[in-house]
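R.M. (postdoc): so does anyone remember the format we settled on? I'll just put the structure tokens first.
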């Protein structure tokens, strides 16, 4: 069983920076993750790229051959390095969010990952600055929802760049948005003829009751760990270690379990973090 995060979100939402911080965090706690660049337009990275789509296709190639090119390129990124069963991959995706909502390529790629026995989770980043304007926020929610529907993956929304938010209270109501609050804010900002549309949008967010965000402040190691623990839970990372771990009846055994040591360690950290979430946030 392999594990994978597909890091998606609008252009500039902080995907590559998140990948880089995640890599550093995992290095610090002694966890191995492999970073895969899926952005053919990316120029430089602050994390070691384990596989790079640019080795196979340049942006020009993609533009020339749109159709087959990207699909083949994505599959190559999976197959070429010969990742092992137990590997944890993080895919840094391009910011063209339409790719995940309009084109079947990412969906095919996800199917391929699943066939290869990977537990995959979509990690959608939204810039906290979007929250200052409810219309931008709603459009970010809609993009997230359509990616959710298109990819049919376990999905985690993250509000990135929390260091830029001076008053945390301002964003709190956007983490678990209430349809009524959104609706009244939208109506206040827009002319009355949009009333019906606003109502439908607010109801959509409410119906799915899936649009909620975990705040991420990259200055805080605990914040990165908290986000990672949610994602790990989502893709069941460490669950087989879980059984062994609790059967042994001792958290201390985790590090000496053959093979499962690293995951078991991650699990213990997850467990403690989720238990003490309130004091961390
Ligand atoms: N203050 C602050 N700036 C950030 C943070 N994360 C990213 N940025 C900045 O936001 C800009 C975009 O960040 P990237 O990580 O390149 O965003 P991206 O989503 O990978 O962008 P694309 O790949 O172009 O879609 C850069 O100038 C980063 O320095 C953060 O947590 N806090
Ligand atoms: Mg990027």
């Amino acid at each position: 069983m392999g594990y994978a995060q597909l890091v998606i979100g609008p252009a500039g939402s902080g995907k590559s920076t998140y990948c880089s911080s995640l890599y550093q965090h995992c290095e610090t706690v002694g966890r191995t993750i492999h970073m895969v660049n899926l952005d053919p337009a990316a120029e430089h990275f602050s994390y070691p790229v384990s596989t790079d789509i640019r080795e196979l296709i340049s942006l020009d190639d993609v533009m020339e051959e749109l159709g087959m090119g990207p699909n083949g390129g994505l599959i190559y990124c999976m197959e070429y390095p010969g990742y092992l069963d137990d590997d944890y991959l993080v895919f840094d995706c391009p910011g063209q969010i339409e790719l995940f909502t309009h084109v079947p390529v990412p969906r095919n790629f996800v199917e391929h990952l699943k066939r290869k026995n990977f537990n995959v989770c979509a990690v959608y980043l939204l810039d906290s600055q979007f929250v200052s304007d409810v219309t931008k926020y709603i459009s970010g929610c809609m993009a997230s929802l359509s990616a959710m529907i298109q990819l049919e993956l376990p999905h985690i929304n993250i509000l990135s760049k929390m260091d830029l938010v001076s008053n945390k209270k301002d964003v709190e109501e956007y983490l678990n948005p209430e349809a009524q609050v959104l609706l009244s804010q939208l109506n206040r900002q827009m002319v009355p003829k949009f009333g019906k549309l606003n109502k439908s949008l607010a109801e959509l967010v409410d119906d799915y009751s899936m649009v909620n965000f975990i705040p991420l402040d990259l200055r805080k190691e605990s914040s990165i760990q908290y986000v990672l623990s949610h994602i790990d839970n989502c893709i069941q990372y460490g669950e087989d270690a879980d059984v062994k771990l609790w059967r042994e009846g001792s958290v201390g055994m985790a590090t000496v379990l053959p093979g499962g040591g690293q995951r078991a360690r991650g699990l213990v950290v997850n467990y403690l973090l989720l238990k003490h979430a309130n004091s961390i946030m």
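R.M.: ...and that's the designed sequence above, right after the tokens. Also worth knowing: Residues 9, 11-17, 39, 95, 160-161, 163-164, 218 surround guanosine-5'-triphosphate (ligand 1) (CB under 6 Å). Confidence is low (pLDDT under 50) at residues 242-273.
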